[in-house]
Amino acid sequence: MPSEQLPNIFELTPLDPKFREAPHQVLDDLRSQCPVYREPAAGTFILTRYADVRATVSDLEMWRDPLRAEAAAVFQRRLAETAVTGEPRAETTSILMLDDPDHARIRQPLARALYARVAKGRANVERIVDSALDRLENEPEFDLMSEFCVPIPIDVIAAILGVDHERLGEFRDWSEGVIQAVNPFRDAAQTEHMERSRAALTDYFTQMLALRRKAPQDDLFSDMTRLQAEGLPISDTELRINLSALLVGGNLTTTDLIGNAVRLLLTHPDELAKLQADPGIINAVVEETLRYDPPVDITSRIASRDIEVGGCPIKTSQSILVSLRGANRDPEMFSDPHRFDVSRKHHPHLAFGGGAHICIGAPLARMEAQVGISRLFNRFPNLRLVDPEEPPAWRMLPFFRGLQHLKVSAH
Ligand code: HEM
């Protein structure tokens, strides 16, 4: 099929009304017509087949750092535009964009410390969810996104890190600002917000690391300064950048997972009835939401050598975007892929990517979503959409899928 009939990069984001409303029509067509697609405007390959996406993200030799992409890779080069030159790469960007050996040096100890915090943090998540629900107790109608889905991940990651409660408002604003780092189409105002937020986070994290070094507490700031004191080769700048990355990576995405799950349950009453009859299936509900409506549409890699995907040659330094959303609805992998079915037995979805860069926050996101959704429907068993006819209000951030608002009635 001629490439002019295939979607360009914008037509694969919610900025395009057709994709915003029916992304799977676009992705299904692309997968069946050109599953290994070289998009000319952005100079990148786009993969939509489950097997290709999985093999690519799991390939431990692939690169991630946008600086390694060829000049034609517009999308990657724009992400690299803000790269600081003359400093070690690990002092200027988080693990999300780093390659080994820096990636492994920083990610492994951070992941161990984070997983230990998550493993003992369930009661804290329950407390945070319950207090969000308490605030809604007497509200007949409310916006579930702003009142529930947004505050929970921020409060949870703040508690894990050890952020002061009174700084949470600023934290929310900074988190929204720094997420623009992953928006290749950001405008001047968004770039300004991103830079202001980065500076504010740097100052705050610098203060917190100094404070915890002197007087450790039961939190992740203290875990990391302790490891550093014990000889872990990680600088203060690296710590700051990567602890901030937990806010960037974790807040919007987990907000969207909870919002997408609740909307799906409210628009699929039979599936909600299954959860209400057997609350023990909450894990399956969250996994099916991650498959069916993943909060992150794509991730990327850069070929570190000449390879072949689906019979197409891809050369060293060429950019590869993988559609996690497309992979999750591939009929070769999932039977009846466009059916939201919480009774599915097998969920090998790719919502968290894979390989060396697989989402470091996946266990936390899963726990927050499981606790949040269960407790929401326990507290408000008659929860419903205020206007079931209203089309979903998808946010316009490229490559993320979440709702701007979700008006619900609790009683
Ligand atoms: C439902 C919620 C979430 C989704 C859908 C999600 C999705 C993703 C995806 C797709 C990647 C890229 C993986 C790859 O390229 O193979 C990623 C990486 C990452 N995520 Fe998440 N994420 C979520 C929650 C979180 C949370 C809660 C945190 C922090 C606490 C977090 C922090 C990160 C970080 C730091 C990375 C970079 C990891 C690396 O490159 O080594 N994410 N996430």
UniProtKB/TrEMBL annotation:
Q: Which SUPFAM superfamilies match?
A: Cytochrome P450 (SSF48264)
Coiled coil spans? none
Q: Which UniProt keywords apply?
A: Heme, Iron, Metal-binding, Monooxygenase, Oxidoreductase
Give the protein's recorded name. Answer: Cytochrome P450
Q: What Gene3D superfamilies does the record tag this protein with? A: Cytochrome P450
Q: Does the keyword Magnesium apply?
A: no
Q: Which family does it belong to?
A: Belongs to the cytochrome P450 family.
Q: Which domain of life is it from?
A: Bacteria
Tell me the organism: Phenylobacterium ferrooxidans
